[in-house]
Amino acid sequence: MCLFSVHEQYDKPSALIIDGRKEFNGSRSKPHFTNYDLRGKREVPLDEWISAETAQQIRASDGVNYESGFHVYEGDTRELNKSPYRRVFVRFVTARGDEGRDRKVVIAREMFVPSDENGWPPKDGSTPKKQSTLDRIKGAIKPGNA
């Protein structure tokens, strides 16, 4: 997947976490990358932050070069809310652009694919990989603070 046009690029990407939609092959429990592999594997790691291979520059159709990374659709349209698209979280966005047909895309260095469609990513590495969202909430609620 390649951008049609680049609208913005960021020299210092933010650690701000945003959500979007990404297309995957495979099943809900074992998604696979559609176009490219990640370090020789197509299977997508779940419930952990994964880093993109960013050493390469990609030329968009408008002639602008941008850093390679995870291409994730912005927005929450009816089309993007059904299979094969899945909700993901990204941080360290390096560019924004579109992929034709006015589909807005962000390019990010890191992505989190939750096993639970409505899961929320951890903000740091302190949450165990296989702990469900409900278990994390239960662990945070203590008598007297709920």
- Helical residues, percent: under 10%
Beginning-to-end CA distance, first to last residue: 45 Å
Structural class by helix and strand composition: mainly beta
Number of domains: 1
Order of helices and strands: EEEEEEEEEH
Unreliable stretches covering 5 or more consecutive residues: none
The outline comes out as globular
Sheet with the most strands? 7 strands, antiparallel
* Beta strand count: 9
Mean pLDDT: 83
Strand content range? 35-45%
> If helices are DSSP runs of H or I spanning 4 or more residues, what is the number of helices?
1
Q: How many whole angstroms does the radius of gyration measure?
A: 16 Å
Provide tags for this entry.
mainly beta; 9 strands; 1 helix; seven-stranded antiparallel beta sheet; two-stranded antiparallel ribbon; 146 residues
